[in-house]
Amino acid sequence: MYINDLNLSPLVVAEPGESYQSDATLNRWIEVLVDCPGTATETEKGVNIYLYRLPTGLEVKPGDILNVPFGAQHLTGIAIRLVAKPPADLPLEKIRDVEDVIQKNFFRDSYWTLMERVSQYYYTQIIQVIRTALPPGLLGRSQRRIRLTVAGAAVSTNTNINGLLDTPLMRVVRQPYSCLIRFYLLYTIENNYLIKILALLKFQSLVAKVNNKDAHKILQLLQQQSDGDYSFRYLQNQVPRAYQAVRELLRRGLVESYLEPPQLTKPKFEKVVTLVASRYERDLTTRQREILEVLRRHGGELWLNEFLQICKTTTPTLKGLEEKGYIVIEEREVLRTEQSPALAQDQPKTLNAAQANALETIQTLNRFAQVLLHGVTGSGKTEVYLQAIAPLLQIGKSALVLVPEIGLTPQLTDRFRARFGNKVSVYHSALSEGERYDTWRQMLAGEPQVVIGTRSAIFAPLPNLGLIILDEEHDSSFKQDSPIPTYHARTVAQWRAELENCPLVLGSATPSLESWLSVREEDTGTRGHGDAGKEGHEDTENLSQTLSVSPRPPLPASPSLSASPRLPIPPSSYYLSLPERINSRPLPPVEIVDMRQELQQGNRSIFSRSLQEALQQLKERQQQGILFIHRRGHSTFVSCRSCGYVLECPYCDVSLAYHHTEEGAPELLRCHYCNYTRSHPKFCPDCSSPYLKFFGSGTQKVTQELARQFPQLRLIRFDSDTTRNKGAHRTLLTQFANGEADLLVGTQMLTKGLDLPQVTLVGVVAADGLLNLSDYRASERAFQTLTQVAGRAGRGDDPGRVIVQTYTSEHPVIEAVRSHDYQSFSQAELEQRQALNYPPYGRLILLRLSSLDPIQVQNTAQIIATALSENEELEILGPAPAGILRVANRYRWQILIKFAPDELPKLPDWEQVRSLCPQSVSLTIDVDPLNIM
Asked: Which residues contact 589 (CB under 8 A, 6 or more apart)?
């Protein structure tokens, strides 16, 4: 094998039709991108490309996913290009054979270009981008694992030599018998004791020679595990200098290292029984005729397991019918896809003037363009999406619809399936590996379809893509913080739309300031085709005279990959407005309640008097409501009233949240960062005082208080605790939509795109938690969240009402939410951003460093910051500890890089920066970060 020199020719995947010739002398070798731990040379190039031989009879095309040998293991690789002959300096005997083809025709040319672009922009090796894009289990690699040797595994964690010797059996053996008799008794009565004692003595003698403290920690971890086995990656995260420690243990013979083969997802097959004879001969018994008659009544085909249950028969009986030629039993693939309930066919709705104008503009665009569809909550954006997609399916094109939360997919999927039937697929992380694998393969088939998914669905391999839609485009869930690549689905969607030459629609009632500025800023020559007071409309003649958006920052030069070519299509931008709700329904009035006044007037409840009155009326009027609280759990933290001690997570620098769902349920303290859990103590761990008090309110506490004050109200709690199980989002929302509850209590999942016509009341229990965050985006996020949750009210025939409780009623965000005034808020916020050179007027790159060693990560951050400060074009902020210094026992430091977006400065060689990090310090490069806490 060899490392291919990328400078000789660009990395371009051939079209799927370009397979090798069957001639044994032509194209018998192929270059493969292998997912393997790279050497220093490979890391500098950013890719791992090796040459393999094609065995006779194995047909491979560029873009296929392969299984290849690599050292002592088998890895997954991607066929890059066919080679007529290997390099002259590479001995033929060193070239190994491709094992098998896992997936054919996987990568198209434009898809590969997208992978390269993501790799370059987010400074991530392309193999890591591919691993992010592909469904789990498709691109696998062997995993290095460490386990105790036989000597160590034979010994229980709590076993010691004295304990073994001090047993009734051993006391009998100590009687004055000869050594031979004692040995005979010991071996025959329970020979396991002898083996265990000998193993323990050997193990203890070996351990005594180990002076490495980290090695002892690893031994302790392995002994605590039931099978004495952990992945090396896990041990690295738990022990600071795991590499040196494991080497010491290997040398002593206390542990052994091995490679676990990759667990690849494969198609699922089940046996099916098919009736092949229409006439029954005399050689059949009465029972056999009955079995065949059952099969005929079921359409002549049934799954084998189902057929056996219906007929109460056996497989040998069916085998006999198959031998006589009456039936055929064969394996058939079963697609593992998300099931949805039966839905009545939905017909297109009549559009109002603004919707019709927006639809006309989108449908007229048959090339790459970016459209900002700015519609107030309840303005009918989804209906515009549906009617924009319908003609695309008729001409054989597909559509991709992205939503920010998994919780949104059931409701949106039902609407789409009611319109388009089985042409709708769902793709998100809550699906099983098999479901994601089969859905992915369905997309590759090329049939026109609609795919609805979350962030990762932007990589869905849809051929003939005709439209991409990002619903709730402002939502921060579209940005991945970890693991790498730290991509934003909106940015990748822009590249994808450009490469596929199709429109991109960004829909939101509260657009991100980046999207808003890109179509509204006059000094860049951009002008929207509509404004907040007019429908976004433009006739066909004007469509040909589109105006350019402000240019996106050019892709950074990468030492590892050639820059992706830009398409010669000028980007175009459109602003489309839906300023009114459908059927001219009014936006709900927003009432701001100052909780300081409530307290002064003697109300100590978490509910204001206005909200209490509104909740009381819900049952009387047979209406529904939503209560929003931004925290889950019962209470934010627990503190001792005697000494002030706050119970904190032992692994993170945060307080533990109190969880208690109902009377009699377990009282737990849980860390919302690392998920550490412990029981709630009865006494203070510091001073033993019994006076522990709960502070702050979460969804559990609000639900309990509601049940106490309003026992007549039926409640559903909707947060990440109640929606952990698969299908829970759909179940809870269906129950609420069917009128099985009066009030839905939940966290931010409630604020995103839910359409519940019976909801007339929305209450925000505590708005202040959204406002007081040390992040320059805090005001924007607070305005978006409060406006979105307010928009859940009054979407049906009955008018809505919104009550926002706050201790800072004079805050500009609260004032803007009260008046539904997006324009004034965005203008004021943009002025502040421009003054501080923050996005969208500036660009940021955040370096996140973490380690188990607090001193080493701090020193490394200082070294990197010093090296970066030599570039005068960059403004370096930091290094500084993260807002929460320690998470999951890892200490975190950050360096923020600021620069102007118009002219990209000469950025550092990131591989050189990474080389400054010792093995114990991890570095994440977050381009365009949304969270700098």
From this structure: 801, 802
